[in-house]
Amino acid sequence: MRASLVSAAILGLASQAASIDPLVIKGSKWFNSKTGAQFFVKGVDYQPDITSTSTVRDPLADTAGCMRDLPFLKDLGVNAIRVYQTEPFGNHDKCMSMLSDAGIYVMLDLSTPTETINRDSPAYDVDLLGYYQRKVDTFAKYDNVFAFLAGNEVTNAYNNTGASAYVKAALRDVKSYIKSKHLTIPVGYATNDDADIRWQLQTYFDCGSISDRADFYGINLYEWCGPAATFESSGYANVVKNFTNWDVPVLLTEYGCNAIKPRTFPEIAAIYGSNMTSSFSGGFVYEYVEEPNEYGLVKVSGSTGTKTADYDYFKKALAAVNPSGVSMSSYTPSGKQQSCPSVSASNNWIASSSLPPSPSNATCSCMMNTLTCVSKQSSMPTSAGDLAKFGQSVSSIFGIVCGTVDCGAVSGNATTGKYGKYSFCDPLQRVSWVMTEWYNDQRNVDGACDFDGFAKVVSVKSTDDSSCSDQKDDPQSSKGPSSDKGDSSSSSSSAAKILGGAPSMAALSVSVVLAMLTSTLL
Ligand SMILES: *[C@@H]1O[C@H](CO)[C@@H](O)[C@H](O)[C@H]1NC(C)=O
Ligand SMILES: *[C@@H]1O[C@H](CO)[C@@H](O)[C@H](O)[C@H]1NC(C)=O
Ligand SMILES: *[C@@H]1O[C@H](CO)[C@@H](O)[C@H](O)[C@H]1NC(C)=O
Ligand SMILES: *[C@@H]1O[C@H](CO)[C@@H](O)[C@H](O)[C@H]1NC(C)=O
Ligand SMILES: *[C@@H]1O[C@H](CO)[C@@H](O)[C@H](O)[C@H]1NC(C)=O
Question: Basic and acidic residues composition bias: which ranges (predicted)?
Fold first, then answer.
């Protein structure tokens, strides 16, 4: 039982509050690890915006919000929620134990608008991996966390399929981190639904070494619009057919077209009926809270919630289904792993199956010791204005230098599958490497290490970087945040933290920096 007695006492619950049975994956199905019964997700996507009362958009750290919403979740009869944005700081104990006591499992996205892989200028570095690791540290202790998502709709068109290589590398590294902690929480991916790349995406995340492969696959599917549509005419049949004999669980991480209102959710009979239950594990309806896009089941305002027109239709449709599964002991997996999609523009797929390397701070620190011309700033700027200025400086430095010297060590190419040995270092480290190359190329003449006051000369600590690539971080030594203190001092995600009150602006600034960095390397 992970819910602590302390938090149970605070909530005034009986101290023998029942713990929730952890779920496990066997083959392409989820099971209750205690009873062996197959588990179908009857879920709702849950992301009330709490930015009016908090600088951080983390509904699982908002006890009042959870208390407002729990009665609705119970009344709807859902057994799981998917939460898109949380933070590895703040206190989640109360929300998590309330959910657990209500028999509600949680699937968590690892990324946030600021800590993510940008589809148009993909990069994956030591900071992002560190952030994902802290999120695992924060949430893995709760028995009802049954899955993590390493990305949501990152690749969403034929021209940004390269980004999937970076997402899959992050997925691989989070899986390996979880394994190193002797945990078994699966890590999957949630895809958008674009017929041009649907098959390429689903095979890409399933192919290659088992340690690189997504442990489960989620689809955000909005094809079934209104009661006149059928399993065939909606397009569902087409999507489902291609998951026949899949080797890992598949589920709908979002569903619920709203072109015809109110929504009566006719697709629910199909999702939990025999056409789908052999290959799908249910899904999450989009979404709990009413937003301007009008997909909500509940309109929330302060401490009150009001049902929307869709609420009772969803509740009734969900109550009417009773998916029949198999028991874990009687089930023998027979699904087949897929091979990787071929890499070619004509196949609409440009992500090589050779993935970016695992980020290692030890490698980057080792490399920094060999540099003679480095950034004057020792940490990433934290305000949006400073970030934008920083981005401009870095971009022009890459532009000047990389036209002359080879910047391959700090860049990568998802199509060729070739990644520089320092391509995963943070932007400050990468620009410092670039400036030192220039300084050396200019034979260290006075003024060659200045870059309009951005750089400074330092004395070299080590002249040989040949062993840097062998330096690996020890996952056991990585410190988790003090999740019970409710402060954010342990998060190094300073940009996200400080700009948390304006997530879209922060997202813009960080991605502008990364976009500048990447585009100058193309
Ligand atoms: C893909 O196309 C869209 C729309 O034309 C464009 O905004 C985006 O920058 C392109 N992405 C890449 C990686 O080329
Ligand atoms: C790398 O170091 C930075 C700065 O200390 C930290 O924020 C990040 O989490 C570390 N990354 C990894 C993968 O340990
Ligand atoms: C289904 O799979 C085939 C390959 O077996 C592929 O060519 C086709 O595009 C896929 N269809 C969909 C709807 O993804
Ligand atoms: C299952 O598929 C069959 C054949 O396409 C269809 O006739 C039936 O309506 C589907 N069942 C549901 C519940 O959609
Ligand atoms: C990667 O390499 C390919 C093949 O050499 C090239 O066509 C493409 O422009 C490169 N892409 C990036 C993002 O650098």
Answer: 470-487
